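Q: Got a minute? One more chain.
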Amino acid sequence: MCAMVRPVMHAAPGLRVRGGLAAVIATLVLLAGCSAGAEGGADAEASASPSGSGSAAPTETSDPEAPMDANQACAAMYVNGDKTLEERIGAALVGASDGLDVAAADQMHAIAVELGRLEPRVPEEFQGPVEKVRVPFLQLQEALDLGTEQQIELDVASTVEGLKQYQKLC
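A: Always. Here it is, folded:
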């Protein structure tokens, strides 16, 4: 088994990411494509459930800290929003690989925060995969917080593995 590790360089005038992510990007695109095809019935079911039940939708939106069941956890990753969380995770990693500027760093931070809010809400069996998905986002945040100018290694393989595990649960 090969570990995919992503080098990142933090430079004072501008942030840069070095190295290629072609294999990781291809895997993320493949995962997104597979989840879109596999979730077709679940998408329709998940989107139909809240509109069919008038009390369910307000409860979800009124308490963003409420625990989720497995269906809600799957919807949070693969259905909700104009762009799903899974797609935004891939886009953030691709954006960082293209050059870690302020916008890419902000996007990585936003995903780290969103995953951090999601983790305690999902059922226990989903929490490990969310932790794995979150690893490179936290690594980058720690490096930025420390103001390090040294190269850091982002463990993108952890994200790929976490997304695979999460998808299996859905």
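A: Residues 133 and 163 are 6 Å apart (CA to CA).
Q: Perfect, thanks.
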